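Supplementary Methods, section 5.1.

A reviewer requested that the exact input to the structure prediction be made available. We therefore reproduce it here, unchanged from the version used in the analyses.
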Amino acid sequence: MSEISAGPHHNPGRYEIRLKGHLDSRWAAWFDGLSLTNENDGTTVIHGPVADQAALHGLLQKVRDIGLPLVSVTQVQPD
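The structure derived from this sequence is encoded token-by-token as follows.
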């Protein structure tokens, strides 16, 4: 059996969450001030720093709540 840490999961980093469809910039406040970019391919990229895994899960719940299909979630290197 392998051991799994039961301690806090703290993986701060920058993420890009890509959604199918476009969101207005006014949605940035709802996504905790993260940047929104509407791409030419019909997707929206929500990007910026995310404090930890709990915050990431919270953002994904918001994505679910607005009803746009989730295309991808990617952790990216800092600028």
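The radius of gyration is 14 Å. These observations are discussed further in the main text.
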